[in-house]
Amino acid sequence: MIKRGQIKLSFGMIFSIILIVIFIAFAFYAIQKFLDIQKYTQIKQFVNNLQSDIDKMWAGTQGSQEVEYFLPSKIESVCFTNDAYENLNFKSSEFIQGEKLTHINIEKITENKDPFCIETIKGKVKMTIKKDYREALVMINKINRQKLNCSLVNSNQMKNKAYLQISFSWLFAIIVGIFILSLTIYATTKLIRTEQTTQSAKTGKEIGILLNPLETSFETGKTTSFTLPVETRIYNKCNNNGIFGKEIIQISQKSFGKWTQTDINIGFYNKYIFSEEYVEGKKFYIFSKPFNFPFKVADLIYMTSSEKEYCFIGAPEEIKREISDLGQKNFLLENCSMPKKILICFMEDPNCDVNINYNMKYVEKKRDKMYFESNALMYAAIFADKEVYECQVKRLMQRTRQLALLYRDKAMFISQRTECHSNLNLLGLSNSVNSLSNSINLNSINSIAEDIKDKNDLADCKLW
After folding, report:
1. Strand 139-141 and strand 124-131: pairing?
2. Which parts of 219-328 are beta strand (E)?
């Protein structure tokens, strides 16, 4: 009986250990994957934040800013190297893929030392981002900082001994197994969420990259589309702080029947996307038109979901031809009586979702009026929510102001070296757009823009 009891006890303990080892191994594997992805996300976020701060400094005339970023503790230093493909590298015990930063004067940064490295302290790296007056690119410098004293904390370990019986060994195995399994489920859930956040950020970046090479081809009046593998919501946000403001998109994708929540924003300073607060689906259509006021300001991008169909009723011939030439499958000029269509009417009709007064130049929907001064802005008002539209119009006026000042400097430069005087009221345009409060003010500013356009068209030396 004693031997049998000893055998049972040994078997119970062995089974307990096996269960614990299996659960611990699985839990540690999941946790390690989660930590690896979290570190990867942290590195990507550092690169995005650094590039964003560089872009802000590059967009201005001059400035200097001390910045601080967080990095995984395994990274010893951040290095800048004169490499055409990967000018940002990481010194670490593990291999980390390098990145390419733009708008930095890498030759000057690495002039004295290549690579030029900045050490990290306790997972933080500090540097100075600087741009001098009339410099085209941004400099990166070190910050002189005092060494930090580190204190060590000693911990005591305690060992407890106890005698186990057969029943307790099984109970211990179950309790520990449940605990480790719960930890594994928790870690796996965190892993899934982190992967979803990473995928959302990656999707947002890919959408931005998709728009870059296609903007010029958009001007030909053709539409393009992109398809995502799962149901996706693309949130369109706008911020008009700073010199040019910022276009912000946020991605949420459906996973296990629920929409993922992420606070990662993908920002662009040179894009102007007009859409509803969010567009939902798998396939999305995009087309663009140039916005001139009076010179070209930017390409306006219009984004819709293939799940929504828009029917244009009573449109002028010019608009009909343009819609027809686009060839966009969710834009219709007939069969508008079918249900679930978004009706866009060029006359007052209470049954329409969107009413356009082409003579008074405003678009009305959901009892809100949005004013426009060109077909480019008319389409923007049709497809965008009022909040997005008004914010993007302000951003366009911010860009118009900067361009007007540049053309004014160009006119002065030409007049000083030739007998050609343009006499364009570019300073008046700059001041007018700077005071714009909402789209209703566009009409008064447009008269100034039209006058400048007419004079520039008749000038011997045109500025654009």
Report:
1. antiparallel
2. 224-239, 246-255, 258-259, 266-268, 272-274, 278-292, 296-305, 309-313
Query: Which of 180 and 367 is assigned the larger pLDDT?
Result: 367
> Amino acid identity of 296?
K
Locate 438 and state its tokens.
Answer: 């909402």
The answer to whether the CB of 412 falls within 8 A of the CB of 389 is no
Per-residue tokens: 402: 């900067």
Which is nearest to 362 in space by CA: 352, 341, 350, 348?
Answer: 348
pLDDT tens digits for 92-145? Answer: 988 888 999 999 999 999 999 999 999 999 889 999 999 998 889 999 999 875
- Contact of 9 with 169, CB cutoff 8 Å: yes
Residue 33 class from Cβ within 10 Å (0-12 exposed, 13-18 middle, 19+ buried)? middle
> CB 89: neighbour CB atoms within 10 A?
18
Length of the chain: 464
| CA dihedral (220, 223, 228, 229) positive or negative | negative
Residue 361, Cβ neighbours under 10 Å: how many?
Answer: 19
Residue among 253, 330, 344 at smallest CA distance from 287: 330
- Rounded to 5 degrees, what are φ and ψ at 362? -150, 155
End-to-end, the C-alpha distance of the chain in Å comes to: 102
Q: How confident is the model over 189-198, as pLDDT tens digits?
A: 665 555 556 6
- Above 50 in pLDDT, residue 167? no
Rounded distance, CA 299 to CA 245, Å?
15
- Confidence tier at 274 by pLDDT (50, 70, 90): very high
Residue entry with tokens 């001041």: 431
Report the amino acid identity of residue 283. Answer: K
Query: How much is the pTM?
Result: 0.58
Spatial contact of 357 and 369, defined as CB atoms under 8 Å apart? no
Q: In this structure, what is the dihedral angle of CA atoms 312, 313, 319, 322, given to the nearest 10 degrees?
A: 40
Write a three-state SS string for 413-457. HHHHHCCCCCCCCHHHHHHHHHCCCCHHHHHHHHHHHHHHHHHHH
Residues with Cβ within 8 Å of 304's Cβ and at least 6 positions away in sequence, in order, are: 275, 279, 284, 285, 310, 330, 383
> Where is 357: in which H helix or E strand?
strand 354-357
Alpha carbon distance 303, 279 (integer Å): 8
How many CB atoms within 10 Å of residue 160?
A: 4
The Cα–Cα gap between 359 and 381 comes to 15
